[in-house]
Amino acid sequence: MVGIAASWSSPVQSLLKSNNSPVGPLTDREFSWIGSLPPIGAICGAFFWNEIIHHLGRKKSALLVTATFFVSNLICCFCTSYYQLLLARFLCGIGIVGCMINNGNYLSEISETKYKGMLCSLTVVVAVMGALFVIIQGSFLSYFHINLITTVACGILLVVLLLYIPESPVHLLRKGQEHKSKEILKWLRCTEDEYVLDRELKILKNSFLNTSQSARKLSVAEVHSNPLSKF
């Protein structure tokens, strides 16, 4: 969804500037705001997504992120005014940064050490594929159908997330639900070997829980006074 959302403005530019635009022909200045609002939304979203992800967990946060994209695409699909389109693009930016933060956390917490690099690299590949997908659509489809397809894709992703994607075992450990965390690890590692599962739990605790418990927040003054924090 990140690739689709980030590249959406490219294939629809000529459509929104034409007489067939659902919000009226846009000027270059008006369209520049269409491209500028996602980064602004991303900056705003960066202030609160981390707290939401920490409290809700990775799965519920993924659902919330996908719902944000769904609403954004739905508004784009049926908008009748320029300001509705601006709102949709702002929400899109919030969804992009939420997706980037949550995906990184989730993949690092569910994957084995030897697969972490590959899985994190795949997120970039998928984003590029999403960008290519929406650009190809722009060559053949109308504005309405481009947004309809992306809205349906978000809806399908919501169902898949809800039914099949497990919660992060690290989040469950933080909530004191070690038994549930172990059950999820059985599914993720495709094993019921107690030795392997206990070893994985120990790795997760040492990698995420012990580190986060020993860490403390730095004040703004400490950040600027500590030479190491400037690099």
What does this protein look like?
The chain has helices at residues 2-7, 9-16, 28-45, 49-56, 58-78, 82-110, 113-140, 143-164, 169-174, 178-189, 194-214, 220-225. By secondary structure, the chain is mainly alpha-helical. The protein has 2 domains: 1-165, Growth Hormone, Chain: A (Up-down Bundle), CATH 1.20.1250.20; 172-225. Helix 3 packs parallel to helix 6 (82-110), helix 5 packs antiparallel against helix 8 and helix 10 crosses helix 11. The longest helix has 29 residues, at 82-110. It is elongated. The model has no long low-confidence stretch (mean pLDDT 81).
Task: Produce a short descriptive summary.
The protein is mostly helical. It is built from 12 helices and no strands. The protein has 2 domains: 1-165, MFS general substrate transporter like domains (Growth Hormone, Chain: A, Up-down Bundle), CATH 1.20.1250.20; 172-225.
